[in-house]
Amino acid sequence: MSNSSETFLYEQLPHGEGLEPPHYESEGAAGMDLRAAIPEGTPVILGPFERTLIPTGIAIELPRGFEAQIRPRSGLALKSGISVLNSPGTIDSDYRGEIKVILINLSNHPVEIKRSDRIAQMVISPVTQLMLEKTNALSFTKRGDKGFGSTGKQ
User: pTM value?
Assistant: First the structure.
């Protein structure tokens, strides 16, 4: 469903067999859904304000110059209070291990995560690497060192 002819490799791990692989759900989608690769019949119960690491059953091989960002799913966040704790999580192009997602329950009630539940989305993004060069002074800007909401006040 993509306009791009770019591809990247993925490996479905044994505990991910039978799960639908990540794919774009619509022509304009930016992210691919990731699914929980936990054992069938053994859901994870995530209590209020608890966090856990959920396996997805896949590993990927991105081309150099790209990253995969792991982000929350908006519907899961709104309906259940489930979010990705380190959002966005970053998968580097040289990482070959399983993608796992740190979920947190920000609601006041337990939430059940079952096998094949869509738990997060993966967005592929270009990366630019720059080198640091030490200086004794940075260039002047009107904003200067003002931060943390300073641009919204006069």
Answer: 0.88
